[in-house]
Each structure stands twice: as structure tokens, then as C-alpha cells.
């Protein structure tokens, strides 16, 4: 991100804050780094050292309000404020820009789908990974979304992976002019965290070391994500290896921090034949991209109403604190088709809204989607 872009983001923080009567503290960075990319191959990209800055974010105090909300008829949360929407979308756009700059597969696939479906690409959800320790867990990034009208929903547990997750439904904001991606209907948010206390002592010590080094970085999770910056220093390669042996999720989070783990295209909201997720999967594979095959390419919920798939994560060249440079997993892109609930099956298709469809998430599906960043999937040959 350019320095001018960062100052623009700060100004938007300040402008938005002036309109709010209540406040709570937030801090903004005064420094940032650029993220030059060179694509090596499908699912691989090389980043310069500055792509994962190891310095903690410098801070200056600002004010941001916690806004109230009310329920709307469609079951989503209706924000009781005006003027905050453009700021929220600006932050999401900055997160998306960092994500697309680091992950050429996601960028290429969005362009491919857009070539068929024009401006009908909507995001089903955005996903983040966190460390459940020292205040760096789900709450650290969730606070930003809650402040802007999101509502906490169900919790999901993944005992084998030692993870838990919460998802958040967006406020219902009218879109008179349409819009696509982050400018379309606001996406759900899915945030997971590693249950650090359940890890080995050695792994716990490494994670606690870096979250403690970061100090108050947990208060700036959304900013760190929008700038593409780690809130702690770069780790040693030996520490990354230790985490990877025990939890590939932990290793990913150590080097990617609060970066978007993935965005998800809502396939049923496409207008072309790609709205059928099976057709979309075929289209993607025919264009040379590798899909996550864990549990089968298509992940289906027990009720048959939530269908999901994802690419394999891109890889990046990362320079560790001890000077060793190795390839590490970055992010990926997901696809989700939500079918109409049985009680609404007789509604004409043209009248079907998002709240008529299967909502929420499924542990079995999500457990397999997590594998998109696993070494097994990254090294698997394409079908």
C-alpha cells in the first residue's frame, strides 16, 4: 500500500469518527510498506522482504464509537447510524487490495469469473485466523465488525485441529445502485482462533513470545489487516517449523497475522451458468487452477443445502528473522452455494432473497476448507 493511501485511510478514520456521538479507543499506524509481487507459477508468488514487515505498528490514539443496532425483517442486523458505511467499505477494500496483491490465484479467478458474469460477483464471507491467547483471538478482529453493526452468531468447534470459530452476520444496508465484491451486499465474517492452551509447551511459548512482543497490537487488528502488516516481529525459521509440525494453522498465522485468509464468492448470486458450483469448479480447473481435494473437491453439509469448494493457497517467499528464506503458504479463494430452505421451495426463483437460503456454516465443510493452506494440498499435483 502506498503511503498516500495509508494517509487517506487515516483521514477516513478521522472523518467517520467526527460523525459519531459515542467513542472507544482505536490506534492508527503512521508507517506502512509496499508489497511488490512476481508470479512464479500457478499458486506460487515471490514477495520481497517488506511484504511481511516484522516491526510492530507505531500508534497514535484516535476515537471510534461503538454503535447500537436493531433487527430488520430479514433477520440481519440494521445499523442505527449514518455515514459509517463508506468507511467500513473503505477498510474492507484495503483488506481486499492487500489480499489480491499477495494472492495472484485469487485475483486471476475473480477476473475469470468477472469475464463471464460482469459485475455480479458478491462475497458470501470473509475469513480471518487468530491466536486465542493474550487477547489476540477472535475478539481482537471481531470488535471492528461489531462496532459497525455486525451481529455475533453461532460458535463452531474443531477438536482435532484445536480450533474454535464464530461467525458474524452483516448489517442490512440497502444498495440502490447495486455494487460488486466489497461494494456489494456486505459479507458474513468468519473468524477462527487456535486454542493455544491446548498446544504443547514449546508451541505455546513461541506463540506467547510473539503476541507479547506485539504489545497492544491486538487493538489494531483491522488496521493491521488493511495495511498488510504483522503486529509482531518476524519469527525464526526454526520456530515456524516447530509450529508447522504441530499445527499448520498456527504456522500460517505466525507469518500472515491478521491478513485475510480467504474471501468467498457467493456462486448462487452469479447470473451465468457458473451460479452452479459444480460448473464453476469445472471452469476453474479447466483454466489450470488447483482445487482443494480434502474430503472431495465439493464439500456438502449434511442437510445438502450448503455446498463449498476452494482453491489451494498460493505460496510466498518469506525471509525469516535469522535470514533464512523459505516458501510459506499464503491465502486462497473459496466458493459457496447456499440452496433455498425447504419452507421456501415454492417461492418463484426471481423472488428468492438471501434470507430464504441456508445460512450459517458447517463444521464438516469448514474443517476440510481449512486444509487449503496445508502442505499436503500445496504439494499435491493438479488432477
TrEMBL record:
Coiled-coil intervals, chain numbering: none
A GO term for molecular function: dioxygenase activity
Magnesium among keywords: no
Native organism: Quercus rubra
Keyword Glycoprotein: no
Keywords: Dioxygenase, Iron, Oxidoreductase
Source organism phylogeny: Eukaryota, Viridiplantae, Streptophyta, Embryophyta, Tracheophyta
Cofactor(s) for this UniProt protein: Fe(2+)
First and last residue of the signal peptide: none
Family: Belongs to the 2-oxoadipate dioxygenase/decarboxylase family.
UniProt superkingdom: Eukaryota
Transmembrane segments: none
Name this protein carries in UniProt: 2-oxoadipate dioxygenase/decarboxylase
E.C. numbers: 1.13.11.93
Classification via InterPro entries: HGLS (IPR009770)
Amino acid at each position: 500500500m502506498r503511503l498516500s493511501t495509508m494517509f487517506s485511510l487515516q483521514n477516513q478514520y478521522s472523518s467517520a469518527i467526527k460523525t459519531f456521538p459515542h467513542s472507544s479507543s482505536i490506534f492508527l499506524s503512521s508507517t506502512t510498506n509496499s508489497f511488490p509481487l512476481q508470479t512464479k507459477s500457478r499458486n506460487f508468488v515471490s514477495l520481497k522482504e517488506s511484504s511481511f514487515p516484522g516491526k510492530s505498528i507505531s500508534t497514535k490514539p484516535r476515537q471510534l464509537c461503538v454503535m447500537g443496532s436493531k433487527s430488520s425483517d430479514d433477520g440481519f442486523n440494521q445499523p442505527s447510524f449514518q455515514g459509517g458505511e463508506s468507511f467500513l467499505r473503505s477498510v474492507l477494500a484495503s483488506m481486499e487490495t492487500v489480499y489480491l496483491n499477495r494472492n495472484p490465484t485469487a485475483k486471476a479467478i475473480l477476473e475469470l469469473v468477472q469475464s463471464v458474469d460482469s459485475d455480479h460477483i458478491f462475497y458470501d464471507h470473509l475469513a480471518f485466523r487468530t491466536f486465542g491467547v493474550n487477547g489476540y483471538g477472535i475478539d481482537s478482529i471481531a470488535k471492528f465488525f461489531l462496532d459497525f453493526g455486525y451481529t455475533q452468531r453461532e460458535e463452531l468447534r474443531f477438536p482435532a485441529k484445536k480450533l474454535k470459530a464464530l461467525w458474524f452476520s452483516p448489517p442490512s444496508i440497502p444498495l440502490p445502485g447495486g455494487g460488486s465484491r466489497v461494494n456489494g451486499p456486505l459479507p458474513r465474517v468468519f473468524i477462527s482462533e487456535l486454542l493455544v492452551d491446548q498446544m504443547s509447551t514449546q508451541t505455546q511459548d513461541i506463540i506467547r513470545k510473539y503476541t507479547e512482543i506485539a504489545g497492544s497490537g491486538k487493538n489494531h487488528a483491522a488496521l493491521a489487516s488493511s495495511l498488510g502488516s504483522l503486529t509482531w516481529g518476524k519469527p525464526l525459521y526454526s520456530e515456524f517449523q516447530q509450529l508447522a509440525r504441530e499445527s499448520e494453522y498456527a504456522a500460517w498465522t505466525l507469518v500472515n497475522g491478521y491478513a485475510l485468509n480467504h474471501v468467498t464468492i457467493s456462486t448462487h448470486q452469479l447470473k451465468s451458468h457458473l451460479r452452479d458450483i459444480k460448473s464453476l469448479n469445472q471452469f476453474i480447473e479447466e483454466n489450470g487452477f488447483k482445487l482443494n481435494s480434502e474430503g472431495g473437491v465439493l464439500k456438502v453439509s449434511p442437510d445438502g443445502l450448503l455446498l463449498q469448494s476452494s482453491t489451494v493457497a498460493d505460496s510466498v517467499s518469506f525471509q525469516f528473522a535469522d535470514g533464512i528464506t523459505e516458501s510459506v503458504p499464503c491465502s486462497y479463494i473459496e466458493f459457496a452455494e447456499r440452496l433455498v430452505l425447504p419452507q421456501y421451495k415454492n417461492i418463484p426463483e426471481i423472488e428468492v432473497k438471501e434470507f430464504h437460503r441456508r445460512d450459517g456454516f458447517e463444521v464438516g465443510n469448514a474443517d476440510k476448507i481449512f486444509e487449503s493452506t496445508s502442505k499436503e494440498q500445496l504439494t499435491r499435483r493438479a488432477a
